[in-house]
Amino acid sequence: MHIPDGFLSNSVTLAAWAASAGGIGYSLKKASLEMKDRTIPLMGITAAFLFSAQMVNFPIGGGTSGHLLGGALAAILLGPFAGSVTLACVLVFQCLLFQDGGITALGANIFNMALGGTLGGYAVFRTVMFVFRSDGGTLIAAALASWFSVVFASLLCAVEIGFSGVSPLGIVVPAMAGIHGVIGLGEAAISVAVLSFVMKARPDLVYLKPVRAEGGP
């Protein structure tokens, strides 16, 4: 899903950079208002985990592999805005140190994954949490949010590629959605495993845990 240099048209590249700069700037402002003493250290730990975990690929058949994106998981642990900033930092380091995604396309990759995937996954997680108000419901919400975050980010990527004239939308959109729908299953499994451990060891680290009180017992 990491777009390399030369894939996007100049207009799409500039639009993505503008949207990413605005989105991350807004996220920084909102995150700073919510930050507690534990937030910055937890952001660092989460970033280190995501950076390492994204280096591990799992096979999904047909010679294709996937890896953890982590946007939904970051939002669940840190909140949507701090999660977006954290994943954006991971993407920057991946781009500069490992050439995972192009420098010119970094704005698009941040927009797709750090903003679209993280905020979209958080929206699904919060919505499902109002329906399932239990620890088991939290894991269900995390699984659905994680799957959605991957598919949604891939769709944003597909639209950018389509509008850049690299591939027709009718081909790239279903192709990206199909393969990332499978990758999303791995994302959901990993996120649930990590969240299960965190909920047992340090349930106070789950950002949305208190939301259950808003809708009742």
Please characterize this protein's 3D structure:
The protein has a two-stranded antiparallel sheet with strand order 1-2. It is globular, with a radius of gyration of 17 Å. Strand 1 (57-61) and strand 2 form a beta hairpin. The chain has a single domain (10-214), classed as Arp2/3 complex 21 kDa subunit ARPC3 (Orthogonal Bundle). It starts with 9 loop residues before the first helix and ends in a 16-residue tail after the last helix. Helix 3 crosses helix 5. It has 217 residues and is mostly helical. It has 7 helices and 2 strands, in the order ααββααααα. 71% of the residues lie in helices and 4% in strands.
Mean pLDDT: 87
**Compute the gyration radius: what is it?**
17 Å
- Please, how many domains? 1
Q: Globular, elongated, flat, extended or rod-shaped: what is the shape?
A: globular
CATH structural fold name: Arp2/3 complex 21 kDa subunit ARPC3
Largest sheet: 2 strands, antiparallel
Structural class, from helix and strand content? mainly alpha
Count the beta strands.
2
Helix run count: 7
Any guess at the CATH architecture?
Orthogonal Bundle
End-to-end separation in angstroms reads: 40 Å
Main sheet strand line-up: 1-2
**Uncertain runs:** 210-217
Report the sheet-strand fraction.
under 5%
